[in-house]
Amino acid sequence: MNSTNCVLIGFMGSGKSTIARALHKANSALILDSDSMIENNENLSIKEIFAHYGETYFRDLESKFCTFVAQNVRNAIISTGGGMPMFCDVKVMGRVFFLHLEFEEILERLSAEETAKRPLFQDKDSAFKLYQERLKTYQNSAHYTINANQSIQMITQEILEKLCI
Ligand code: S3P
Question: From ligand 1's centre to the CA of 119, what distance in Å?
């Protein structure tokens, strides 16, 4: 992967974990998923971390993840939590791909079970507000914006081409 990391950003439900797994299948690079690493390290779910310690504590863990990846990780696929670009400079981790979907498309993809796991997706109106507030930052934080309303195969291929693999 040119020794750089491939960093996936995007709103909750935009398919970051799915695309990370497809990229892994295509090129065997390891996946580091910030939410999963934080959950494992804390031995708590994201929902429990927010409930017990608050969002600021969670964002601090995300910043530490970002610094760790920038300093220590190469040739990996980095799947980020949806809010990370609002609080950290994600470009320090590698080539950044914004998986862009319209809010309506996100709603179609997220089941009630999936939204229940996400403390910042408790109701449609506040999630839409958050989506609108964040859109510019996602665009500005990315080297490439990818239309995520395509097949997994097409998205993966587009990312791999841009990484020059
Ligand atoms: C968040 C997104 C979640 C998770 C946390 C906060 C956000 O990750 O990091 O619930 O602020 O958008 P996903 O994007 O994987 O849902």
Answer: 8
